[in-house]
Amino acid sequence: MAKSASKKSSKSASRSTRSASKSAPLRVGIIGTSFMGRAHSNAWANAPHFFDLRRPVVMEAASGRNGQQTCRFAEQWGWRTSTTDWREIVASADIDLVDVCTPNHLHAEMSIAALDAGKHVSCEKPLAGTLDDARAMRDAAAKAKRKGVRSFVWFNYRRVPALAFAHQLVAKGRLGTIHHVRANYLQDWGHPDTPLVWRFDSKQAGSGAHGDLNAHIIDLARFLTGDEVTEVVGAVEETFVTRRRIVEEARVAIKGGAGRSKGKAAPKMGRSTVDDAVLFLARFKGGAVASFEASRLATGNLNRNMIELNGDKGSIRFDFERMNELQWWDHTIEPGLRGWSRIMCTEAEHHPYVHAYWPAAHGLGYEHGFVSEVADIVNMLGGGEPEVPMPDFADAFETQRVLEAAVLSARERGPIALSQVK
Ligand code: NAI
Ligand code: SOE
């Protein structure tokens, strides 16, 4: 059995975080033990193997809802202790950073409690289910930052080498003036057989495909262009499957699998209160026009996170289903030689983060983005810089404003200036 987390008071906890030296071990507590709980645990465990970190990592405590499962999770992934009360993690004097991997409606309460207790916080995306929660988180993080406490958001795709490299190409001006941003995040697990897991409940998720998937591509568009959305010109929000099976327990990450229904009677059905798809058009400050589309019912697209930028000197195109590759069009070369080229973004000398992993074309996977994010978080807390910019709560709030503008635009059937969304 894993030991239970320490119950020392939050006062002593905040003192211990603030006085921690920039080379002292970074003691982490995680809340949530399922899909992201596993992805982050793997990252905390493995970042010190792959990277020379400025601080050692101590995987101090894991928190879940079921005692036995959480204890097993802690043993399996290498957390020293476990608890079923997340507030113990927040209050513990043995923890410097709280990692929030729970459904969206819990992000604000957990993150703000941790920041107020003087802990650094790394929180999953979207920042929150609602703009009000996101604003409260931004404000709490700003207050905490004045005391040296940092916030981080897991927009993990920024740390896929091909996308980090694309960011660098744009920053060097290789695309010239950007005219188009074309972003889709398409999945197809939302068919009618998928039960009513928390992702279909607006009280827990905030929204459906929109907050879940558009959040990623809005963040990516902002990260790649270095520019901000000024207007959502129009939007469509659609729920195709309005009623879903109620199950006691979801069995499979994301879609719940067959789930477990009570007895043999016809399954009880409940209402899905979120969108299955949201599409919108937008304008960027620098003049680019953009389209965004997120869907859970785009049959045949499993995890197709795609983004294309077209500038007057070149274009880039990325598809997460081929995550080690970046498509590149150089418009500055002799016209007859122009064509899309496929760059394998796996060369340590040229492509961000690859230096920590494997030789050229020994491809990286989904988990490496999280491992690289841990490396950047730890190094930042050791006084260093991330390899590419890291989103904090203030940054993620800007993405949340775009999400909100798109919803308003869909519901009011008209354009929404970002200046209207505060
Ligand atoms: P999940 O349903 O697989 O896991 C949620 C976890 O939260 C479970 O372990 C559950 O027991 C725990 N939990 C729920 N209520 C709790 C409470 N009151 N106290 C303590 N623990 C509680 O969900 P998943 O997929 O891990 O998503 C979690 C968050 O991560 C969401 O915000 C989601 O949007 C985000 N996410 C991000 C991804 C990315 O690519 N960055 C990928 C998948 C999810
Ligand atoms: C499910 O749609 C999901 O796991 C999202 O929650 C993640 O953020 C995305 O990266 C992959 O798909």
What are the low-pLDDT stretches, counting only 5+ consecutive residues below 50?
Answer: 4-19
Task: Tell me the distance between the termini.
Answer: 47 Å
CATH class category name of the largest domain:
Alpha Beta
Please work out how many helical segments DSSP would assign.
11
Number of domains: 2
Helix and strand run = EHEHEHEHEHEHEHEHHEEEEEEEEEHHE
Described by strand count, sense and barrel closure, the largest sheet is:
9 strands, mixed
Mean pLDDT: 94
Net shape: globular
What is the correct CATH architecture of the largest domain?
2-Layer Sandwich
Quick tags:
alpha/beta; Dihydrodipicolinate Reductase, domain 2; nine-stranded mixed sheet; seven-stranded parallel sheet; 18 strands; binds 1,4-dihydronicotinamide adenine dinucleotide
Give an overview of the whole structure.
This protein has 2 domains: 144 residues, Rossmann fold (3-Layer(aba) Sandwich); 227 residues, 2-Layer Sandwich (Dihydrodipicolinate Reductase, domain 2). Helices cover 32% and strands 23% of the residues. The chain has 11 helices and 18 strands. α5 runs parallel beside α6 and α7 packs across α9. The termini are far apart. 51% of the residues are buried. The protein binds 1,4-dihydronicotinamide adenine dinucleotide and alpha-L-sorbopyranose (SOE). Alpha-L-sorbopyranose (SOE) binds next to α9.
